Amino acid sequence: MNAQGSTARNARTMQTKRRISWKEIDWIAAESYVNRLQVRIVKAVQAGKWRLVKRLQTLLCNSFYAKALAVRRVTTNKGKKTPGVDGVIWKTPQEKMEAVRDLNTLTYHALPLKRVYIEKYGKKEKRPLGIPTMHDRAMQGLQLLALEPVEEATADKSSFGFRKGRSAQDAMEYIFKLLSRKRSPQWILEGDIKGCFDNISHKWMLNNITMDKRIMRQFLKCGYIDRKKLFPTEEGSPQGGLISPTYANLTLDGLEDLLQKEYSTSSTGHYNANYNKHKVHLCRYADDFIITSDSEEVLREVKILVESFMETRGLKLSEEKTVITNINAGFDFLGWNFRKFKGKLLIQPSVKSKKKVTQKLSLTIKTYCQAEQDLLIHKLNEITKGWAEYHHCVCAKSTFALIDHRMWEMLWKWAKRRHPRKPHKWIKRRYWRSKANRQWIFRTDKQVLFQMSDMPIVRISSLDRTKNPYIDPEYFLKRRYKHKELRKRVYARSAAACGRYYAL
Question: Is the pLDDT of residue 1 over 50?
């Protein structure tokens, strides 16, 4: 208790006693102090003490440590070099420390977003993004520290996207449990929300999300600048902000409870969560979701129920993309294809996902056609390792071998274009080397091309959906550690580890 009180006093007086530098901040103490306040917020939400929740949120958002963590987040993520409409980037420790002192919840006013457009895969139209300024991003990160505990305490159990301690792999494992048995539901409603982030009702969010309403209004009504013109934002939470995914999650939470109350009520009118005659279950990842059932007719009723739920929030389902599918025909979700073959459920990387990574590898090889082999291998490894890591817990061994073969063909053409007059044996000796039982290893003295087929397939353990990352952090740490150790043991028995193919 004394240590906790001392840390709290240090946090409150850090900026009043003396001006410390950015490098002098104790980040472990900062995370510990903020985490203790977040735990208190979760417990207050669970107890229904909403006035206490607001007081704790105010305390957190005005603390020095929380402001420092918010600034650190926006200066270390991928968008740290992307400025907003003011063109400001925080690079030096002095600029970061000044940014911490400038974060004031009482006088904060948001600047308009910078509108940029990114390409949609397989489509000609582009996706609009709103880029906030660094100061606005830091304020969003600060408010997010106070809002995330509320989300975790009130979220649907079957929601997996943009939540602490959860991932797409957890959603995949949950779907496997729902659909893998003989008596599992056979029909799936694939839900797609039309322009989810762009159409969420501001009025609904302001009335139902627990945070500082003045600051939330600043986030939502700041407008955006496109081609040097200012446009207002009357609805939606613009994609590109730190807090937008959390807004979307809070907006869509409650759908699972609605389905349970509708389909887990017996004929006598008694509600029981374990009673589910039609096997109606929800799995949601951000704005993508599926709903299972034992009949197509029930899912048509469910669709009407979901549409009314969305309508109150200013959202609509896409008529083209919202379809009802049988598990034997299969469906795609989060980059995987779920389908039963002779009663056995197989989860594999989807055709779209395989095509996308193939095009990405091809574009990388074409872009670096004149580069050194070391640089090309480094760029390719960034793609292959990340893609194999994402799919390491599904039936992807044959897919990994297929992508490896495609990559070999592209690299062979790359090598022949560089030396059109050299014989094939010379090209092989120049770019490929032999080791142990492998004759074709694309490598140099500094870099080795990663082969996806060397990624071990390890199934992820089921997530206990009742656990809260703020109340039960040990569970999530232990679960992550066990999976990591299991993958190490499996890889140690593989041919790549035994043959030391990646040893330089």
Answer: no
Residue indicated by tokens 């704005």:
287
Whole-structure pTM over 0.85, yes or no?
A: yes
SS (H, E, C) 5-54: HHHHHHHHHHHHHCCCCHHHCCHHHHHHHHHHHHHHHHHHHHCCCHHHHH
CA distances from residue 391 to 163, 336, 452 in whole angstroms, order as listed: 20, 8, 10
Pick the closest to residue 175 from 308, 339, 58 (CA basis).
339
pLDDT tens for each residue of 476-504: 999 999 999 999 999 999 888 888 888 77
3-state helix, strand, coil split of the chain in percent (to 5) is 50, 15, 35
Q: What is the pLDDT of residues 358-394, one digit of tens each?
A: 999 999 999 999 999 999 999 999 999 999 999 999 9
Of 400, 354, 357, 355, which Cα lies nearest the Cα of 380?
357
**Dist. CA 153–CA 155, nearest whole Å:** 6
What residues have CB less than 8 Å from 131, skipping those under 6 apart? 79, 82, 83, 84, 113, 114, 115, 116, 240
Please give the Cα distance from 27 to 65 (Å, whole number): 8
Q: Which residue has the tokens 């003045």?
A: 214
Distance CA 436, CA 416 (A): 26
Q: Hey, is 199 helix, strand or coil?
A: helix
